[in-house]
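#help-structures
NK: newbie question, is this the right format to request a structure? protein is Histidine kinase domain-containing protein
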Amino acid sequence: MISRKYFWIIITIYLLIGSYIFYESYQSPIVGIEVEKEDNDWIISGFKFSEIGELHQIHKGDILLEINDIKIDETTKLTYDKMISFANSIKLITSDEEIRYIYFSHHDLPTQFFNNYILPLSYFLIACFLAIYLYQHQKGNKQALNYLIQFILTVAIACGSIPLLIRLNWFGLIINSVFTVLSPILLLSFLKHYYSFLNIRWKFFNFIHYLYVIPIIVFLLTILEKFFTWMYSIDTVIILLFFFLLVIINIIVICIGYVKYPKSQIKVLLWGIVFPFLPFLVMYVIPLIFLQKYIFSTSILTIFFLCISFGFTFAQFSERLFDIDYYISRLKYYSLYSLVITMVLGIGIYFIISISIPLLLTICIFIFIVILISFYIKEKLDYVNRKVLFTPHGNYIHQLYSTIEVIGKTVDINDLFNKLSTILSKQLEFEVVYVVAFNVKEKKFVENKKSIVNPIHQTLPISLFENLHLMEILNTDACYVTCIHQDVEMKQILILGNRNHSSLKHEELLSLELLILFTNNFIDNTKLVEDLLSKLNTMEQRDQGHPYWFEKLVLLKLEDEKNHLAQDLHDTILQEQIFLIREMDSMLYENNVECLQTKIGDFHQQLVSINHQLRAYCEILKPPLLDTLGLNAALNKLAIQTKKRANFTLIFSIEQIETTNKYIPLLIYRLIQEMLTNAIKHSQATYVKIQLLKYEGGFEISYMDNGIGFDQSILKNSKSMGLTGMRERIRTYNGYFEIDTYPNEGVQIQIRVGDV
C-alpha cells in the first residue's frame, strides 16, 4: 500500500496541477469562430455556436485582425487549426470597413461554460475525494487499490486539461498527452493485481511494465512540438492511436477474463470499461483518427468516465460475490421503473407545455434522478419502520427457506448448530462462523465438543454477552455477535467474522433475524422432544411400561381401526346376511318344491360369495402368504386378485427386499394394498404402475396412474384412513412420502424408507 506521506504528496501534486489547469481554463471564454485565409486576410467563415454571432453582431466575411490583442499573423495556432476556440477579445473589420473591438465573457455561452469548465472541475473534485476515501477505507486488494487511485486521478487530470489542449497551452499539451496514454496503462496494472486477487493469473501481465515506455515517448514528442509546430497534427494521431490500442487491450483482457472466468466482479469491470470508453472511442477517437473530425466534443463524452471510477471502486470494495449481482439487479429494476415513469411524464409535459427539446431532456433527466433516489429512500424507510425489504430475485427468501428446510430435519441441537454455522458461512461468506454457549449464572463460556479454530469470542468483553438479548445482532470491530437462543441458565451465541470484517446489508440482517426466530423456536421444540425421548428411554430401561398418554393414543388408534372394519362388515356381509334371513322367512310359506330348490341354490351361491368376502377380509387383516411364502409371493397374489377385480391395466414390478425388521414386509404390503384399493375405488384409471425397489437398506415404492386425480387440499380436511393412514405409517418410520396430483392429471406417489 502507498505510504501515507507518499499518498499526500500525490494529492498535493494533483491539486497543484489541477489548480493551474482550471485557472488557465477560466482565463478565456469559449467563442468557436471558424476562419479561413483569403489573400493574406483571415476571413470569418462560420460559427460553431450561432449565439456568438447573433449576440455580438459578427457576420461571415468580416476580416479578423487581432485575437487577445495579438495580431492575427502572429497566432501560430491558426496554421493547423482554423478555429478560434477561446478568446477574451477580437479586433475585426466589418464589410462596411468599420473596425470593431469585441469582448467575450463566460456568460455568452453558459451551456458551453458548464460543459467545458464546471463538469471537468466537478469530476476533478469528485476524483480527489474518491481517492482520499479509497485510501482511508483500505479494503480488498491493496496492491490493486494503489493503481485504482492513480488511475482515477490520472483520468481526472487528462479530462480537466482538455480546455488547455484546445488553447494549445504548452504545459496543457504535455499534461493531456502524457496522462491520456498513462491512464489505460494504469488500468492494465490495476487489472493485473485485481485478477491476481481473484486467483486469475496470465503471462501477459508480466509484460505490462514495458508499456510505461509509451508515456515517455509521448512526452518527448510533445516537447518537440514546441520547436516543430508542424508535428502537432502527427503527434495528435500518434497519441490517439496509442490510446485507442491501449483501451482495446483493456477491453480484450476483461472480455476474455469474463468468458473464461465468469465472475461477478469481472462483469462489473466489463460494463465499467465498455460503457464509458465506447462512446469516447466511437464518437471522438476513431472519427478524429480517420476523418480528422470528431462527432461529439470531449467535454461531453468525458462525463462517461465517472462510471469507470465508481464502477471500479465498487468492484474493489465488493468483498462478496453476490453483493455485485444484488446491487446491479436492484439498480436495473429501479432504473427501469424510473425510466418508464420519466418517459410518461416527459411525453405529458411535451404535449401540455410547449417547450424546446433540450429543455425537455434536462427536465426528464432531473425527474429520472429524483425518482431513482426516491426508490432508495423508500427502501430505507421501509426497512427502518416496517422491516420490509424488496429483493429483485428473492435470493434471501430462497436462502432462508432452504436453510429452514435443512435445519428442520435435525433432531440433535449440536447437529443443528453445526449445520447452521456451515450454511451461514457459505451464504454470507464469513470465514469464521460458530455457536458457543455462555453460562449466564457463572458468567463464563462452556467448552464446546467441537474445537474452534479461531475463537473470536475470547477477545470480546464478557459484559457484551451478559447484556446481549435474544435476536439482538451486534456489530463489533471484530465480528457480528447475536443470541440465537436463551433459557434460564444458558445463552447460545452465534459468532460471524472474517479478516476484512464484511458488513452485512439490511436484507441480510433481516433474513438473519428471521432465521434466529425460527431457530429459537426450533431449539425449544427440539428440547421438548429430547426430554420426551429421554423419559421414554428411562421408562423402557426400568421396565415400567409405556406412559399413560402413549397407551391412550394406541388404544384410540385401535378403536379407529375397529370402527373402520365394523363399518365395512356392516355395509357388505351383514347386509347380505340380513337379506338371506328375510328370504328364508318367506320360504316358510312356500309349498312349491321346484321354487324351493331354486331359492336354495341361490342361497348357496350367496353364502359362497359371503365366504369369499370373509376370506378376503381375513387376508386383509393378516395375509397368510406373508408369513409362509414371503413378501413377494403375497404381493404377486395381491396383484393377481386386483387384475381380476379392476378395470385398468396393472404394471407390477417388485424387487426382493432384504430386511431384519419383521414389520417392514407387512408395512410394504399394507401400503401397496391401500394403493390398489384406492385405484379400484376412486381413480377411474385405465393404467396403473407400481414399482417396489431397494433403497439404502430399506425400500422405495413408486405409484403412478392416469386417472382423474384430485385436489391435494382435500387431504388436509379428510378423515379417510387411506392416504392419510399411509402418510402416518411412513412418518412412524421416519420415511419420505410425497403425492403429486391435480384434477384430471392422474396421481403419482413416491415413498422411501431407509435402513430401519
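mod (FA): yep, format's fine, and the C-alpha cells are attached above. Residues 395 and 452 are 30 Å apart (CA to CA).
NK: thank you!
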